[in-house]
Amino acid sequence: MKTDRRVLRTRKQINRAVLALLQTQSIDTITVKAIAAKADINRKTFYNHHANVNDVVDAIQTDIVDALTLQMKRFDQESLLRDPSPLLRLSAQTLENNAAVNVFKEHPMLLGAFMEKLKRAFVTTLTTMYENPDDSLLARSYFTTTFTVSGALDVYLSWLKDPKGVSLEQLSDDIGKLIAEGVIRFSDELQSDA
Q1: Which residues have CB under 8 Å from 149's CB, separation 6+?
Q2: What is the fold, at CATH topology level, of the domain defined by 5-50?
Q3: Residue 62: which residues within 8 A CB-CB, separation 6 or more?
C-alpha cells in the first residue's frame, strides 16, 4: 500500500525537527510542543504519527536500518563470502554520510541503540541467505555471523568517533579481507565435519 505524500511530508518534517533539536538538546528534554513548533505542525498532527519523542527516533533509526538491509540484499551469498568489502564499504559510507547517524554520534545511548538494531538486522539478513542449511549449520552460522557483524560494527563505531587518519575505504577493505579469510577457513572446516 502506498503512503500518501502528505503523510510522508509530515513525517519528514517531524524527523527533521527532532534531529535539529537533538543537535542542541538531549532526547529527554525535547518536548512534543517543541517538535510541533519546529516542524510547523500542531501537536495533534504529531500524535497522529507518533506516540512520543522516542518513537520518532525509533522510526528514524528503523528507516536507516531498512535502507541498509535493502542494500545488503542486493549482494548474493557467494560474492559476499568471497569478498565482503563492497558491502562493508557501502554500509560504512552510508553510516558516515547519514545526517541522522551524525546526530546520534553526539548521543551515545541513541547511537548504541541504533547500532544494536543494525546488528540484529544484518545478522538476520545474512543468516537467511544460507541455502537450506541443516539446524546445526544454521545455529553455527548464526553465532559466527553475529560475531563477525558485531566486530565489524564495533570497529565502524570506533572509526565514526575517531578515524585516526585511516580512510573509510581502507578500513572496509581490511575488515573485508579478515572476514573473507575467516569465512573460507570456517566453510572448509564445516565441509570436513560433514
Answers
A1: 119, 122, 123, 126
A2: Arc Repressor Mutant, subunit A (1.10.10)
A3: 117
Within a 13 Å sphere around the CA of 10, how many CA atoms are in the beta-carbon half? 16
- On the 0-12 / 13-18 / 19+ scale of CB atoms within 10 A, 164 is exposed
pTM above 0.90, yes or no: no
- CB 146: neighbour CB atoms within 10 A? 16
Instruction: Return the ∠ at Cα 84 (arms to 79 and 87), rounded to 5°.
Output: 100
pLDDT tens digit at each of 194 positions of the chain: 567 899 999 999 999 999 999 999 999 999 999 999 999 999 999 999 999 999 999 999 999 999 999 988 888 877 887 788 888 888 888 888 899 999 998 999 999 999 999 999 998 888 877 655 566 666 777 888 889 899 998 998 888 888 899 988 899 999 998 888 887 777 777 667 66
One-character DSSP codes across 77-115: HHHHHH--HHHHHHHHHHHHH-HHHHHHTT-HHHHHHHH
Q: Among candidates 4, 20, 91, 95, which has minimal Cα distance to 56?
A: 20
